[in-house]
Batch of 4 targets.
Target 1
Amino acid sequence: MRSTEIKPEMDGERVIIAGWVHEVRDLGGLVFIVIRDRDGFIQITLPKKTVNLEMFKKAKKISRESVIKVEGIVKREDKAPNGFEIIPDIFEILSESHSPLPLEVTEKVPADLETRLDNRFMDLRRPKVSSIFRIKSQISKSIRDFLSNRGFIEVHTPKIVSTATEGGTELFPISYFEREAFLNQSPQLYKQILMSAGLEKVFEIGPIFRAEEHNTTRHLNEATSVDIEMSFVDHEGVMEILEEMVKKVYGNVIEKCEKQLKTLEIELEVPKTPFKRITYTEAIKILENKIPWGEDLDLQALKTIGNEIGGFYFITEWPTKIKPFYVMPFEDDRICKSFDLMYGYIEIASGAQREHRYEKLLENIKRRNLYPESFEFYLKAFRYGIPPHAGWGLGLERLIMAMLGLSNIREAMLFPRDRTRLVP
Ligand code: ATP
Ligand code: MG
C-alpha cells in the first residue's frame, strides 16, 4: 500500500508497505523507522520486547536510504506523524544503501545546487524537489488537454536537421554519416511547412537545443519547448490562445497539485486575462530612452520593465530587424507582428504572425544575408498555396520558473544540460 492509503481508522488491520528508510531513531529497547514512499511518510515501530529479536537486530542496523518492505499491523498512535504506526512482523531489505550518503535527503541539511545535480537521483528523493516534477507533469497534461480541446493536433518534427532555423550560431553540429547536421533549435520551419500541408492547427512539446555559450539562470542548452502554429489567424489570435492556456494551466495546477504546492509552500493565484500589452516603443519609453529605438532589450532593461509592470504581460510591435526573417512586418516596415510573453523580466514565449507571401519571405531571407538555397525545403512549401498563419514557442521550464518562483531554471529540469554539465 502507499503511505497515503493507510489511515488511523485502519487500526488492527494488516498492511504491506515499501519504501526508503528516511530516518532511524534507536532508543535502545525501541526502534523507530520512518519509511518514505512517493507520497509521504509512515512510521514503523519495533519494541524489543514484543517483536521477533532477529528482525529487531536487522532493523536496528539498517542504513538510511535502504529500500525495505514491511508487513505488519496498523496501530492508532496519536504521537506518530499521521496518527498511526505500524508494528511489523516481516521486515525485508530489498536494497541496502551504502553510507555515507552523497547527499542528505532530509531537508535539514542544505546542499548547493552543483552537489544536488551531481546526485540528482538522490536530490529527487526530496519531496520539495519531486513536487516540481509532479507539477511539470500536470502542466504538460493541461497544455495537451487545452490545445487538443481547441482542435490542435500533436505533431513530432525532426530534431536532426540540415539548416539553422534562424541562421544563427547557437547550433550544436553533429556528424551525420558523411555530412554535418545540427540538433534543431526550434520546430519553427517544420510547423510552418505543416500549415502548407493543410493541418491548420498543430502543437508540439519537445526538446530544443541551443548552443548558448553563457551560463545564466534562465538558459539551458537543452530545454523543452511548447510550440503551436495555426492557419487563418493573425498574431492577436494566437496571443489570445497563449494567455488563455497559461490561465488554464494555473487553474489546473491549483486544483490538481494542492499537495505539491503545499510542500513547496507556494500559494498560486490564477492570472487574470487579457494580459497587459505594451508595445516595444512604450517599453523603450519606460527605460527613459537608455536603449536606442531598434536595439534588443537586454537583461537590465527587462528588469526595469518587469519591475514597472509585473506579472504576465506582452511586449508587441517589435522592430523588424531584431526579429527573425519569418516574422511578418506591419505596413510600416520598421515594426513587425511579433510579440514576447513576459513574466517580470523573464521571457516566457515568443510568437508572431508569419510572413506567408513567398516574394516577401525571400526578400527577408536575403536581407539578413542568409542563403535561400539552404531554405529551399522550407521555401518550396510557400510556392504552392499556403494560408496566412501565426504561432508561438513557449519555454516549458521558463513557465515553471515563473509559476513556482524558482531562482534557477536548472531546478525545473530533471537532468539539466549547461555549458559545463553533461552528466548525469
Ligand atoms: P532569450 O532571449 O531569453 O534567450 P530567445 O528569444 O532566444 O530567448 P526563442 O527563440 O524566442 O528564445 O524561443 C522561444 C522560447 O523558448 C523562449 O521564449 C523561452 O521561453 C524558451 N527558450 C529559448 N531558449 C531557451 C534556453 N536556452 N533555455 C530555456 N528556455 C529557452
Ligand atoms: Mg524570443
Target 2
Amino acid sequence: MKVLVVGGGGREHAIVEALHRSQAEIYAAMANQNPGIRRRSKEILLGDVTDVERIVSWAKGHGIELAVIGPEAPLERGITDALEAAAIPTVGPSREAARLETNKEFTRTLMREHRITGSPQFWAFDNLAGFEEFVNDSYFEFVIKPLGLTGGKGVRVWGEHFSTKPEALAYGREILEKNIGGTARFLVEEKLVGEEFSLQAFCDGRSLVPMPLAQDHKRAYEEDKGPNTGGMGSYSDADHLLPFVTRDEYERALETMTKTVDAMFARDTPFKGILYGGFMATRDGPKLLEYNVRFADPESMNVLPILEGDFLDVCVRLTGGNLPSNVKFSRKATVCKYVVPMGYGSHPKAGEQLKVDEESIRRTGARLYYASVDERGGHLYTTTSRSLAVVGIASDLGAAESISEEALAFVAGNFYARRDIGKPEIVKRKVERMQKIHG
Ligand code: AMP
Ligand code: GLY
C-alpha cells in the first residue's frame, strides 16, 4: 500500500519504521532530509509541510492510498480535509477537529459545556482592563496561555516565567498587542502542581484506543532545569502506567479523553486521528494541560516500537471508523534520549559533525531515530533542532535506560543529551514528590 507520511522529525521516523514493518510503500513529505526516513522511502518531497496544495497534488500524482500526518501545522492548515477531498484516507483530524489543539479556549469551553472532568479553572480575556481587574483580585497563582499554536513557547507559568502581578500584566498586554497565538485573546488557568504525563490514543471518530503512558522531559538540562524545549527525551514503563500514576488516575485521564471524543462526535465534528493528552497528576487527580492532535514527540518513540501487530492495519481501520477495541503493546519499558546540538534551548550550535555508528547501536538492541541533521559529503552535521534519538527497550526501566546509554556511546561529536532521563533514582524522586503532593 502506498502511504504518505508528512513530517521529518524523530516522531515521523518512528511512524515510518512502524509502517515499514507493515510492508507499506513510503512516500515522505518533509522540510529537511531525514536520513532515516529517506532510506525507507520510495520517493520524497522536500519543502514546506504546510504547503497543502503542493503535497496533495504530489500525493494524487503518486497514487497515494493512505496518509499519516506527523506535525500539527499542516493539520491546522486543513491538510486532512484536502487529502480526503482527493479520496485519500488520512490519519489526522479535520481542521475543525484539530481545534482541540489549535484553540485552547475551544477545548476548555467544550469540556465545560459537556461537563468533562479534569479541567482546571480558567478565564478568557480580550482586553487589558478585564485582565487587570482579575489580576488585582486574584489571590492564587495562575498560568497565562495564548489561544493558538506558539511552537510550545507561549505558555507562562507563575513562579517559573514570572512571579509578580506587573509581569503578568505585561505579558497579557504583549499577547493582545502582538496577537501571540494568532488572536488578541488569551486564557488564564489556575496553576496546577504535580508531575506531567502523556496519554496518546488512536481515535476513529467514535471510539478511542489508548497507548501506554509516557513522560516527556521538556527542560533542556538535567534535574528539569533550564529553558523549555521541544522535549529532550521520555520513558514508559512495562505495565504501561508510570511509577507515579495509579491505575485509577490513568482511568480518570482516559475518561477525560473518551468524553472529549464523545463530545466531538456529538457536535458533528468527529475526531479521527491521534489524540494526545498532556496531563498533570495533581492532588485532586489528573488534570488536562492541553491536547495535541498528533503523536507526541518524543513519546511516539516510546510507544511505536513496542506496538505489536500491524500498524498499517490500525491506520486503515482508524480511517475507516472501525478501530479494534484493543491495540496491543509489548510489556516492555522504554527510555528515549534525544541527541541535540550544544546550546539547544537557547543558542543551538549548528554545523557540528556527528558520527553515528549505526551497526554498533543496533547491536545494543536500541532503536535509532533520526530527526534534524544535515548531510553533506556523506557526513552528518547538527542543525539548530534536535538531531536524533536513541531508544532502549527492556523488561524494566533500569535495563532500558542502560541500553539507551550504551547506544549513546556510539554517537560521537560535540552534542548534548540529558543522561538523567529514565534513571531509576530520578524516577524514584518523582514518585516521592508525588507522594508528598498527595500528602
Ligand atoms: P501547554 O502548551 O498548554 O501544554 O503548556 C506547556 C507547559 O506549560 C505544560 O507542559 C506545563 O508544563 C505548563 N502548564 C500548562 N498549563 C498549566 C497549568 N494550568 N498549570 C501549571 N502548568 C501548566
Ligand atoms: N511531547 C511534546 C509534544 O509532542 O508536543
Target 3
Amino acid sequence: MRILKFGGTSVGSPENIQKVIAVVKERAQKENVAVVVSAVGGITNKLLHAGHLAAQKDTTYSAIFQEIKDIHLTYTKALTQSGETLLHVQNLMNDLEALLQGIFLIHELSPKTIDKLTSFGERASSMMITAAFLEQNISAQHKDSRDLILTDASHTKAIVHTEQTHTAIQNYFKDTNVPITVLPGFIARSETGDTSTLGRGGSDFTAAILAAALQVDALEIWTDVSGMYSANPKLVKQAQPIRHISYHEAMELSHFGAKVLYPPTIAPVMQENIPLYIKNTFDPEAIGTCISNEVNGKNTPIKGISHINDVALLTLEGAGMIGVSGTSKRLFETLSSLAINVILITQASSEHSICIGVAQGDVQRAKDAIENTFAYEISKHQIDPVFIEKELAIIALVGEKMKSHQGISGKMFSTLGKNNINIRAIAQGASEKNISAVIASKDVKKALNSLHERFFEDQHQQLNLFIMGVGNVGGRLMAQIKQQQEYLLEHLKLNLRVIGISNR
Ligand code: ASP
Ligand code: MG
C-alpha cells in the first residue's frame, strides 16, 4: 500500500484535479492507495478571513462565504454529474453558512470554533475528489479522517494520540478492499469529540500518520514544485532539486522555511523508516526528492542552503551574569511562559552575554518580559537593559556529511566576507548538520546566491556536448537529454546544460 498526498494547488481547479486523478489511477493499478487531500488552494485562508470578519460583526463576511460556496459548487459540477454529491456539497455549504451566522451573532471565534470552521475546506475537497473518481468509473471510497485520527483538545494545533490513532487506522484498512480511499487531510477528532486540526499545512502530517500506522512502502507528497531545492528557486536561479536527502537533513531544511513540507511530517515516517517522495503534480515525470535513511555519500556535504526572514536578535548582557547559574533558566522560562519560540541561541564562553533569535513579531514582548524578570539585576546595573536588533534573517547551510569535512564554515564565512555581508551571530550545533548565521535581511539574496555559487556551482564543471539525432526524434531526444543530465549530475557532478537545439 502507498499513501499519496495532494496539496492545495494540486487540487486547486477542476483541471488540476484531473491531473491528480491521472497520477492516482496509475499508482492504484499496482497497489491500493490512500489519497489525502488538502483544501482547494486558498480556501483555508478564506474560511479564516470570513470567520474573523463575522466575529467582528462585519457583514462583508457573507461575500467571502459566497465566494467559497461558488468555488465548491462550480468545481463539483465540473467534476461530476452526480446529483447526490452536489446535494452533499450544498448541505456542507449550508452548514458553513449557519456556522458563520453563529459566529456573527455571538461575536466570538474560539480556537475550537476555528477548527470547526477550517475543517470545511478539506471536507468539501475530499468529497468532490471522491466523486470525480467515481465519475470516471474508478473504484474509490471516501473516509472521514475524523473517525481515525484522535487528538487532545489543543485546538488549531492538536497533539495526536498515536496509539489509539494507529489502532483505528489499522482496523479500518484491514477490512477495506477498495483500491482508492480518499481522506481529508488536516482534520481530526479531539478527545471531547469535537473537530480538531493538526496545524496549518497539516495535511502532510495526516498522510505521514497514515503511512506510519499502515507501515506502507512509501509516502508521496505531491505539490507544485519538483522537490526540495538546494536553495529557494525564487531567490537563486541556479537552485536545483535535491534528489536524495536524509530525514534529518530534510527536517533541518523544512524547519528553515523551505515551505515544501510541514516539518512534523518527517518524524512518523522516519520512525518507521518509510521513504518519503516529494513529487510535482504538474510535472509527474520529474524525479523529485527522495527523503530516506540512505545518505547519498557521493553528494556534496552540503545539501541545501536555507533561510528564515523576519528575525530579531535579543541580547542579555552584563558583568552580573558571569559564573552565575540560573540566568539562562530564568531567561528561557520567561520566553516559554509567553509561548515565544526561540530560533537560535549563542553564548560565548565568557558568559558575559546570551544572544537569542526570535521572530520579529515577538521581540518587543520578549524584551519587556525579560526586563521584568531581571528588574532587580538591571536596577543594580549588574545586567544591562535588553538590547534588540531587527530586520535580520538567518541563513543556514544544511548537510549531514558536513561533520566529516573540514573547512566548511571557513568557506561559508569567507564567502560572506568577500561579498561584504556582515555576520551578526553564528550558531552551529555539535551535530554539525546545520551552520547558521544571522545577517541583515537586505543581504539575504546576495548571501544565498554567493553561497550557492561557492558550494554547488563551482564543483560542477561545464561540459559542452553535442548530441545529434536523426529523423523526428524531438520528444524522445529531450527525454534522453534529461536522463543524461541527471546521471551526469549525480555520478560525475557535471552540470549538463542544454545550450541550443538545432533542426537541420
Ligand atoms: N488546508 C490546510 C492549510 O491550508 C492544511 C493543508 O493544506 O495542509 O493550512
Ligand atoms: Mg499545504
Target 4
Amino acid sequence: MSDLLAQLYPDHLATLKQRADAALARGGFDHLVIAAGAARYQFLDDRPYPFAVSPQFKAWLPVTKAPGSWLVYTPGNKPRLVYLQPHDYWHVVPDAPAGYWVEHFDIAIIRKPEEALAHLPKDNARCAVIGEDNAALEAFVPNNPPAVVNYLHYHRAYKTDYELAMMRVASRLGARAHRAAEDAFRTGKSEYDINTAYLNAVHETENELPYSNIIALNQHSAVLHYTELNRAPPAHADSFLIDAGASFHGYASDITRTYAAKQAPEFQELIDAVDTAQRGFVEKVKKGTDYADLHIHAHHVLAGILRDQDFVRMSAESAVESGVSGVFFPHGLGHLIGLQVHDVAGFARNEAGDTIAKPAGHTYLRLTRTLEPRMVTTIEPGLYFIDMLLAQLKARPESQSINWDKVDKFRHFGGIRIEDDVACTDGAPENLTRDAFASLN
Ligand code: GLY
Ligand code: MN
Ligand code: MN
C-alpha cells in the first residue's frame, strides 16, 4: 500500500500546488500559510479537547497529529513544513517525519510553538494564513481570505488518485468493522458491546474515527443521530442500524447498514426495497447528474415504496408534493466526503464562493452541485418511523391517506438507512463501500 501511495503522492502534491497557485493569484497573495491547529481546553480546566487537525493542513501530507505545526507554500518553492516536536515528557511527542512524503518538503523542526515565527514568511501582509483563532502566533493572525479559501474548498471536491486510494482503504477498514458489528448484533449483544466489537475490528480510537458511531437497536434508529450506547441488550433486538466509518491518514469513510432479526421478515422486506432503491441512486452518480434532482428523484422512489408496501395510500407524486415523503425521509440523500465526513463546498456554484440554493422545503440537503468525475459523494436514503414527525402528520389532512395500523406496527423497528460512498468517474460509478464489502469475502 505505501508503495502505491508513494507512487501517487507526487501528482497529488502537484495538483495541490496548482490549486494553491491559482488561489493565491485570485487573492493577491504571495504565500499560503496553513496552521495545523492547536489544542483547545475545556472551560476552567486543564484538559484539552481531542485535537482535530485543520483539513487544509492534512490535505498536503498524511500527518494528523501535529498541533503547533505549520505549512508554508510559496509558488515555485518546495513546500516547507514547520514541525513542532516539543521537548516534553508529559505527552507523546509527534513522531519524527518519515515516509514517502518527507522528501517533497523542506522540513524545519521546532521545539516551542513560538519558534515557528522564524520559519514563516517575513511579510505576513503578503500571506494567506489559513487557521483558527487559537492557532495564531502574534505576528501570524489567520486572515482566511475568502477568495483563497473558497477556491481551495471548491476544488477539494475533486479527489486526486492518491486521495481515492486513501478513501478505498478507509472504506475497507469500515466494512471489516461493520461485519464484526453485524455478528455482535446477531448474537444478541448490547449497543455498547456492538460498539466495542466495531472499535476492536476497526482498530481506531473513538477520537480517530471520522465521526461518532451510531449504533441503534430497535426504535433507537428513529433518532437520526443516536449516539447513546445502552449497556444492556433489549429483550428482543428486532432491528439494528449502524452508521460508522473509519479514517485513513485523515480521509473518511461513512457507511450505514440496517439489519432485521430473523423473526422480522416484514422489516427485511422494507430493507430490501430501500436497498434496491439505493443501488438505483448509486447508478446515477454520473457526470452531469444534478445532485439536488437526484435527491428529489429519491423522494419519488421512496414514496413509491411506501405506497407499494401499503404504508401510504396516495400516489408517489402527491406524497412528495404534500411533504408526506419528508416525514419518512427527513434528511438529505447525501453529501461530499473526503478529508471531512461532510466535506466542504457542497453548495458551491463556482470557485468564487457563490452557492446553489437547496430545493424549497429540503433544508437538510447538503449537496446541490452537479456531479463530475473525481467527486465522491454518499448515497444514503432512509425510511424512518419517527414519533414526533408522525404525530405532526396525524394532525394534517393527509393523515387520512396513511395506513396507521401498518405504520404503528413498524414504529419499534425505528428506521432504515443504507449508505455507500460513491466516486463519480468518466464511466460507471465506483462504489467504494460495496467494493470494500465484496473484498472481504
Ligand atoms: N454519519 C453521518 C452521515 O451519514 O452524514
Ligand atoms: Mn453520510
Ligand atoms: Mn453516515
